């Protein structure tokens, strides 16, 4: 997604390299996304009389903007991001509040999740995901001992995440709220928090999450529909049953690229939330395995970068890598689980693949942050190798 040998901000001293595996995995996923958005959206756009390639061109536009944003972030020193992490978080909170301002916030299907930015709507939570990761990374660096030894050290970041979750539930956006809380818990655990403290807080939070899940009638309906979508296949269970039909038709190797029947006005949101069902129908079980392998490759390289960075003293870079990897992994798992009928329906796209403006844009930005973490890790390892000229570079990395 950006030049592998281009030098980042510093011009003197040891230079690093961006992790080739991260870049290639992200490039492969966005390539699959372009192909499948083209395949799944033509019928939808044509039916809406906006031109058969409207959603494809829109996807390519945001992908181009996302790649540009990824390049910019990949060239920013993480020390600057760490220094301004609190301000970035406050900006994210401000964006969440803007959705409630008349004339700025947009109401779509009863939910206030978007900010009007002229030609399109922008979903504030996509920015919040990234700034929360940077804030948590800076917190885990600054309060390492407190997080590892006391319950109070764990409660503070969870309180910040709880504030964001509360604002998301007011929109309402239950899926993103759960995702943010899961990423927060994962980062705190990787930061060394005791499982006993996390389990204690989990016991307190579980009833609140359960209450939030069933308090709204539409969420309760989704839970009932998830348990048996065939009870009402033409109303509440329509999305899931059509997705399952698409997956079943694909069998091992699919019906062929572009030959999906379900995307022809049967499967709602075929190019966004349910794009995996189209992949399954057209490319079969083989296509699903490829998508899963690509996500495993990207997330695996990200977690490996995080572990090496933390062990090598690049703690902020390491926690940023952990956070981005967790976010991509959990969102992908939820999206895949919804399409396969093993999780209740949530409005979460498949990262880097689904058509989507703000989601695609900020996921590219997150990959840029992950790549920057790999660059600074490589640079630190190069500096360590130069300081010990008689020690092989492999030994320094180990």
| Overall domain count | 1
User: What is the number of helices?
Assistant: 15
Specify the structural class.
mainly alpha
List unreliable stretches of 5+ residues. Answer: 3-10
Report the order of strands and helices. Answer: HHHHEEEHHHHHHHHHHH
Per DSSP E runs of 2 or more residues, the count of β-strands stands at 3
Radius of gyration: 22 Å
Average pLDDT, rounded to a whole number, is 87
General shape: globular
The biggest beta sheet reads: 3 strands, antiparallel
For the terminal residues, how far apart are their CA atoms? 27 Å
The proportion of strand residues reads under 5%
Which strand order spans the largest sheet, edge to edge or round the barrel? 1-2-3
Helix fraction bin: 55-70%
Question: What would you note in describing this structure?
Answer:
- The chain is mainly alpha-helical.
- The chain has one domain.
- 69% of the residues lie in helices and 3% in strands.
- The chain has 15 helices and three strands.
- It has helices spanning 20-47, 54-74, 78-83, 85-98, 124-142, 144-149, 151-170, 174-190, 195-215, 217-227, 238-250, 275-311, 315-340, 357-387, 393-397; strands spanning 105-108, 111-116, 121-123.
- It has a three-stranded antiparallel β-sheet with strand order 1-2-3.
- Strand 1 and strand 2 (111-116) form a beta hairpin.
- Helix 8 (174-190) packs across helix 13 (315-340).
- Residues 3-10 have low confidence and may be disordered.
Quickly list its features.
398 residues, mainly alpha, three-stranded antiparallel beta sheet, 15 helices, 3% strand, globular, disordered N terminus
């Amino acid at each position: 997604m950006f030049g592998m040998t281009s030098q980042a901000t510093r011009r003197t001293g040891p230079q690093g390299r961006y992790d080739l595996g991260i870049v290639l995995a992200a490039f492969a996923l966005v390539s699959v996304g372009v192909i499948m958005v083209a395949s799944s959206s033509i019928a939808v756009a044509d039916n809406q009389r906006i031109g058969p390639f409207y959603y494809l061109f829109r996807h390519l536009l945001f992908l181009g903007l996302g790649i540009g944003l990824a390049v910019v972030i990949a060239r920013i020193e993480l020390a600057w991001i760490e220094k301004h992490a609190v301000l970035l978080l406050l900006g994210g909170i401000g964006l969440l509040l803007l959705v409630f301002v008349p004339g700025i916030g947009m109401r779509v299907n009863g939910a206030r999740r978007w900010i009007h930015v002229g030609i399109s709507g922008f979903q504030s939570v996509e920015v919040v995901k990234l700034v929360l990761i940077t804030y948590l990374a800076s917190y885990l660096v600054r309060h390492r001992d407190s997080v590892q030894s006391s319950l109070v050290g764990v409660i503070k970041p969870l309180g910040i995440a709880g504030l964001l979750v509360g604002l998301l539930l007011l929109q309402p956006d239950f899926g993103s709220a759960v995702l943010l809380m899961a990423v927060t818990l994962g980062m705190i655990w990787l930061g060394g928090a005791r499982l006993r403290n996390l389990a204690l807080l989990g016991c307190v939070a579980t009833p609140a999450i359960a209450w939030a899940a069933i308090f709204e009638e539409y969420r309760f309906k989704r839970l009932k529909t998830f348990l048996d979508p065939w009870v009402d296949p033409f109303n509440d269970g329509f999305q899931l049953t059509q997705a399952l039909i698409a997956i079943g038709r694909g069998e091992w190797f699919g019906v062929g690229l572009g030959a999906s029947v379900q995307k022809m006005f049967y499967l709602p949101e075929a190019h966004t939330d349910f794009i995996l069902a189209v992949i399954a129908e057209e490319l079969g079980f083989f296509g699903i395995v490829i998508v899963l392998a690509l996500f495993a490759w990207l997330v695996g390289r990200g977690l490996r970068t995080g572990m090496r960075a933390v062990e090598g003293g690049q703690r902020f870079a390491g926690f940023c890598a952990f956070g981005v990897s967790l976010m991509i992994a959990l969102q992908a798992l939820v999206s895949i689980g919804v399409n396969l009928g093993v999780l209740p329906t949530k409005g979460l796209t498949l990262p880097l693949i689904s058509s989507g403006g703000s989601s695609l844009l900020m996921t590219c930005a997150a990959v840029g942050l992950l790549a920057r973490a790999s660059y600074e890790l490589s640079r630190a390892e190069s500096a360590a190798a130069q300081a010990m000229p008689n020690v092989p570079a492999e030994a320094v990395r180990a």
